[in-house]
Amino acid sequence: MKLTFYLGALQALHSRPVPHSRLVLYSRLVFHPRQPLLARPFVTEAEKVASARRELLEKIYEPFAKLDKNSPEYNELATSGRVWEDYWQPGDSDKYGYTRVQQEVASTLLKIDTLKNAMSVPASVVAKQLVNSYAQQSAAIEGNRLNQSESMVIDEQLRSEVFSKTPLGSMSADDIRNLDLPDPSVVLPQADKLQLIELRNHLVASHWISETSPRAQCSSGLDESEVRALSALTMRDLDPHEKNRYPTWCGDPVMLGGYRTNPAGIKSNPLAVFPYPLEVDACMRRFFQWRQRVSEEKELHPVIIACQTVVYFLHIHPFPDGNGRVSRMIMHDYLLRHGYIPIVFTPFSRPEYLRMMMNAQDGRPGEFVSRVVTIQLEWMQTFQLQDMARNSHHE
Q1: Where are the domains of the chain?
Q2: pTM exceeds 0.70
């Protein structure tokens, strides 16, 4: 049977970790006649997963099967991103359970909004106090081992050498990606240099978001060029040989801020199917259109939209690396624009977070949304008590 799927052939069907990488790239697979798996006496678990992934890919990309891969129709369909998107429908809030979960947590969301409206100190001020915790936590989810104390040392270096001289609030995302940043190994010489740089980059991005996002109240969030710039900032200086590219462990060379040029997968869920590289541009364009639309419709609560935004973005997985950190920056920004506090997931393990993301992508976002809503409520209550203490002191 001849298969004429997109990109000439479906991509490889087993996870193969790349050193230091959180992204597992798949090499091309060429189909040959083979003995059915069920007819063979010994079938490994990897073969079962490979077979299941192959069947899923064939199902998703079936619209290409009847097209000549050199035809204009084939190329137009490939670059439209519609095949992947029509199959998964990542923006369908009913299908993926967000509408239902919003009803389940409605009373908690009401408490959050009541506390938010009563706060004497706005969330934008609170966010600046949480930058160090937020950035360190977000980096830790991706395996960064630096602790809060070390994060504070890097943050103080940035405040002294950069923020005291640079008005972040008046800078664009492109400006901050090109800032002259200090070497954090100067202040923490015993720590892993790449992890220091990774956390430094996250701190700079988080400070910029805390300064700029509250000025765009109730808007739909960072635009595509800003997200690309934040991705570039997140991954800068992590490859000593290629300053303006994503690290070489991410696959084919890609300039910082560019979308990936390799098929992608994740080791934790080998059956997760992300858009092929030719589809990513169109899928990202509709991601931003979707967020604009649901923000204007106001049928979903902003905290629920922030949750679905993270999962939708990660399902596209647009960049060669750093997608998890950028997804949380998008969430951080969106919450601030709507008057809510950034989410600090502590204590939290990477496997726990990955499980929640995988479940949400499979239409079970309950645990993730519940965590976010609970953390938001706890922070609101914490700052309400601080307000009461300040008022009592003034009396």
Answers
A1: 6-87, 98-394
A2: yes
